[in-house]
User: Which sequence fits this backbone?
C-alpha cells in the first residue's frame, strides 16, 4: 500500500530488466529480418527507455535529484526533494504529482500532496516521498567502521574492510541510490554479453489453489510482462529460423537428391529439399545465412517426416543386416554340407 525508497529502486531494476528483454527479443528479432534481407513491415512496440531515463539520467533523473539533495548544504527534507522533482520532471509524461503546476493533477484526489506517481511499464505506481532522503543517505560513520574492523572476530572484521586505517578514504561515501545504480549497470553489462533465455511465469490466481484460473489476473500479467508485443512480433514474423548447414544436415534424408550427401552450397540444397517436399512458398523465406519458417505446423511436419524416414532407414538397415546374417549362415551350412557329402561319398 505504501511504496517508499526500497520499492522505488526495486521497480527501477525491473524497468532495466524489461528494457534488456525488449532489446534482446523485440528489437533484436526485427533487426535480424533486416540483416537477413527478409521483407518485413516494422511492428511498433513501447520501449521503456523513456522511463529508465526519467529515473537514471545523470542530470535530470530522479536518482540524480535525490543525490543532489542529499549532498547539498542547508536544510534538506523530503518535501524539498519533491519540490525539486516538480521543477525538473513536471512536464515528463510518465511523472505525476499534485504539487506540480500541471493542471491535470490539481483535482486528482487519489494522489496525496506528499507523493509522486510514475507510470512504469507495468502500470502506475505511487511513492510516498517520506524517508527518501534519509534512506538514500544512510551512511555508516567512519569511526563505527574502524571500531568494527578492530574487532577480534574475523567475520566482523571482514564485513567492514573500509575501517582499515591503511585504506581510509576521506571522500564522502556514495549514496544508496548511486550504489544501486552502479550495481544495476554492472548487471546490465553482464547480461548484454550473454545469450539469455527467458521463462515467464504466470500466476493463475492469488489463492495458490489448483484448477482456479483468474482471467483478469492473467491478462494483467501478460500485459505488464510485455508478452503481447512479443506475440505480435512473433506471429507477424517467423516462428523458426536456422542456418542452412544444420537445417540441411537434419532433413537431408527426406529428399533423394540430398541424401546421403549433397554436393554444393547448403542454401541450394535446402531449396531443392523444400521444393521436393512441396512446402508452400508463403511458409518460408530464404535469408542471407538462414532459412526462416513462418508457422510451427510446417516445422512439426518436417519433424514428423524425419521421424518416419528414420524409422524407414532403421528398418532398411535391420533388413540388410538380417539378410546378410542369414545368407552368411546359409553359405556356411552349404559349405559344411558339401564337405560332409564329399567325405561320405569317399567312404561309401
Assistant:
Amino acid at each position: 500500500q505504501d511504496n517508499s525508497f526500497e520499492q522505488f529502486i526495486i521497480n527501477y531494476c525491473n524497468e532495466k530488466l524489461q528494457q534488456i528483454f525488449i532489446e534482446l527479443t523485440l528489437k533484436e528479432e526485427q533487426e535480424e529480418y533486416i540483416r537477413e534481407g527478409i521483407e518485413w513491415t516494422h511492428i511498433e512496440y513501447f520501449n521503456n527507455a523513456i522511463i529508465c531515463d526519467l529515473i537514471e539520467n545523470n542530470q535530470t533523473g530522479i536518482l540524480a535529484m535525490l543525490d543532489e539533495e542529499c549532498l547539498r548544504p542547508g536544510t534538506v527534507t523530503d518535501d524539498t526533494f519533491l519540490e525539486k522533482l516538480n521543477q525538473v520532471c513536471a512536464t515528463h509524461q510518465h511523472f505525476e504529482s499534485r504539487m506540480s503546476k500541471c493542471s491535470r493533477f490539481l483535482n486528482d484526489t487519489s494522489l496525496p500532496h506528499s507523493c509522486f506517481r510514475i507510470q512504469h511499464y507495468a502500470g502506475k505506481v505511487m511513492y510516498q516521498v517520506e524517508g527518501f532522503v534519509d534512506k538514500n543517505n544512510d551512511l555508516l560513520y567512519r569511526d563505527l567502521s574502524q571500531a568494527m574492523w578492530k574487532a577480534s572476530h574475523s567475520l566482523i572484521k571482514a564485513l567492514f574492510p573500509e575501517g582499515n586505517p591503511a585504506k581510509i578514504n576521506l571522500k564522502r561515501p556514495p549514496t544508496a541510490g548511486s550504489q544501486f545504480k552502479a550495481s544495476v549497470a554492472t548487471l546490465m553489462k553482464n547480461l548484454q554479453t550473454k545469450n539469455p533465455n527467458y521463462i515467464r511465469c504466470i500466476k493463475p490466481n492469488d489463492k495458490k489453489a489448483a484448477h482456479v484460473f483468474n482471467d483478469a489476473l492473467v491478462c494483467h500479467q501478460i500485459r505488464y510482462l510485455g508478452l503481447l508485443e512479443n506475440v505480435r512480433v512473433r506471429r507477424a514474423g517467423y516462428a523458426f529460423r536456422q542456418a542452412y548447414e544444420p537445417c540441411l544436415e537434419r532433413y537431408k534424408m527426406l529428399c533423394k537428391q540430398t541424401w546421403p550427401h549433397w554436393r554444393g552450397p547448403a542454401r541450394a540444397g535446402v531449396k531443392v529439399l523444400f521444393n521436393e517436399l512441396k512446402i508452400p512458398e508463403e511458409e518460408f523465406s530464404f535469408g542471407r545465412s538462414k532459412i526462416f519458417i513462418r508457422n510451427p505446423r510446417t516445422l512439426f511436419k518436417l519433424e514428423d517426416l524425419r521421424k518416419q524416414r528414420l524409422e524407414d532407414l532403421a528398418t532398411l538397415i535391420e533388413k540388410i543386416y538380417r539378410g546378410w546374417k542369414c545368407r552368411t549362415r546359409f553359405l556356411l551350412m552349404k559349405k559344411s554340407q558339401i564337405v560332409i557329402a564329399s567325405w561320405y561319398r569317399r567312404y561309401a
User: Anything to note?
Assistant: The longest strand covers residues 115-120. Residues 140-165 form one domain. The chain is about 55% helix and 5% strand. The chain has a mean pLDDT of 83.
